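Bit of a strange request maybe. I'm writing a small parser for structure token strings and I need a real example to test against, not something I typed by hand. Could someone generate the tokens for this chain?
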Amino acid sequence: MNRRDFVGKAGCAAAALAAAGLAGGQDKTIQAPPPPPPPPPKAKRYKIDIEIYEARPDSWCHKKGDTFAYPADWGKLCPWLRASLNEFVRLLENGVTLPWKYEGTPYAKEIDPEGVTTEYVRCPDPTSDLVAKIIRTRV
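Reply from user aminoacidic:
Good idea to test on real output. This should exercise your parser:
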């Protein structure tokens, strides 16, 4: 008998029982659903600050030493720099630590998962020579 004929004669309930293996005298026990997964660990909280680490003295947008708090001051950053920082800030605020260190350069990073971690990002504006330092601090 094909499925269409079976459903037409036996009805949907019988078809559902057959699909579950309970029709036709088969003895199947219904197992309880698995227990729910444990709750995820509590997310770590971070404070993100952005400091202008390098900039030309005649830079039109930011000066060396300018500081910005994320996310409060995000709109105060130049759009070009903000676009460069975006992915790095998202990663750092979610606890990711990027492994490269730039040892032997002025951009040598500090990496401490339990404290302060830094990352350096250069602005793509070819006229600015601007480098921003992202500082992540565990709260």
